[in-house]
Automatic annotation (TrEMBL):
Name of this protein: Porin
UniProt entry keywords in alphabetical sequence: Signal
Species of the source: Aquamicrobium terrae
Top-level division of the source organism's lineage: Bacteria
Signal peptide: 1-38
Length: 402
């Protein structure tokens, strides 16, 4: 699958599972952002024109141009004590030549929030997404386009409790069901067939945080139960259980320096005892303002990767990201970043070694409209498969928020 919309960007520290607080606070920031109601919906849109050296995102490097269109709407009514809202987003990617890699997606969600007392908050969220994914199947020198529709429906409930002494407890429970229809092949060269199993994911977590001035400290426990439909022989994917425990610490100073750290362990258990291992897990991130309106940001994390893995079970991901930003003027900003990652496939014994670089310039014409120019360069080496992928992606785009 080409990396177009889903592509990982250097400097995206949120890609780790151990999400840390943006600032020490109680309840609402722990459960999620709660904004006062707005009389008018908030609209956003962007259009980008890309050139990529590797439209197939494989060792077969085929260059192509593609257009990426995004749009979204957010509307919320109520106030800080009780509100409800709806979000909707769509995305379209269209290639000039390699049409088999075109993607389309739509996502909608609705939430309701209520502060029952100064010590108790509740939030519920329902979400649905549909993704028509264009991909390809390589059979020797032959490349056959494929397309499948993936749908995800999920529900989440969160409860925040103020325990006194600047201490807050957040309980989180969610369930998501993923289903993928039959894969259709280009020009009906092969009969449609199911290649991806249905998956049900249930997650429960508890997080306790205490705020002491600029310092926030605490810990969390989590459990993820994934029930995967048996499909193929041997199966293309396996059921698993993932347990996690970690301690968290975050510091934010008056000078703008921020530091966050989460250290703990994760236990991954594969179906029928095929895999059972405990590994240390971590997520460290920091940001620091520099002279002349520069800012340095970085993150390093290690964890089990179950969502984005070519392995039937999961991978172990070790990733480092560093980004330097510069606000040249009120309208013009620059940033550049690098990343390095090693992804160990647990059952296939393959190792994916990736590294990349990006540079970006953003210019704000006015409050609603801005322009962006960006270049991404990435390299990936898959050891056992002996596959080397090299991709350069450059784009210019316009973004508007109303």
């Amino acid at each position: 699958m080409a990396r177009k919309p889903e592509r990982r960007r250097a400097g995206n520290a949120s890609s780790g599972r151990a999400l840390l607080l943006a600032a020490p606070a109680l309840l609402s920031p722990l459960i999620g952002p709660v904004a006062a109601g707005a009389a008018e919906p908030q609209l956003s849109a962007s259009i980008e024109r890309h050139w990529t050296s590797n439209a197939l995102d494989s060792e077969i490097a085929v260059a192509d141009w593609y257009t990426l269109l995004r749009g979204g709407m957010r509307h919320q009514v109520g106030d800080d004590d009780a509100n409800a809202g709806i979000d909707a987003e769509f995305q379209l990617a269209r290639h000039d030549r390699i049409a088999i890699e075109d993607d389309r997606s739509l996502a909608v969600s609705a939430h309701a929030f209520r502060r029952l007392s100064p010590a108790l908050e509740l939030r519920g969220t329902l979400a649905y997404s549909a993704i028509s994914k264009g991909d390809h199947l390589e059979i020797g020198p032959l490349v056959i386009g494929t397309r499948a529709l993936k749908q995800v429906a999920s529900a989440q409930v969160q409860m925040g409790l103020a325990l006194g002494g600047a201490t807050a407890l957040v309980l989180d429970m969610s369930n998501a069901f993923e289903t993928t229809g039959r894969t259709h092949f280009e020009q009906d060269l092969l009969d449609p067939v199911r290649l991806d199993p249905d998956v049900n994911k249930f997650r429960a977590a508890a997080r306790l945080m205490r705020t002491l001035g600029p310092l926030a400290a605490g810990g969390s426990l989590s459990a993820l139960f994934a029930t995967v439909e048996k499909l193929g022989s041997p199966p293309v994917a396996l059921s698993y259980t993932l347990y996690g425990a970690q301690g968290e610490l975050e510091l934010r100073t008056a000078a703008g320096i921020a530091f966050g750290m989460a250290l703990g362990a994760e236990n991954l258990r594969g179906a029928h005892g095929i895999y059972d291992e405990v590994r240390p897990a971590w997520h460290v991130k920091a940001s620091m303002p520099l002279p002349r309106d520069f800012e340095l940001r970085g993150a390093w994390f290690g964890r089990f990767e179950t969502a984005d893995s070519d392995d039937p079970l999961a991978s172990w991901l070790d990733r480092t990201e560093i980004e330097l930003g510069w606000k040249a003027t009120e309208r013009l900003a620059f940033s550049a970043g690098v990343y390095r990652e090693v992804k160990q496939n647990l059952l296939m014994e393959n190792e994916e070694r990736g590294r990349g670089f990006y540079a970006q310039a953003t210019y704000a014409f006015g409050k609603p409209l801005s322009a962006i120019f960006r270049v991404d360069v990435s390299k990936t080496f898959k050891t056992i498969l002996d596959i080397r992928e090299r991709t350069t992606d450059a784009f210019i785009g316009l973004r508007a928020r109303i």
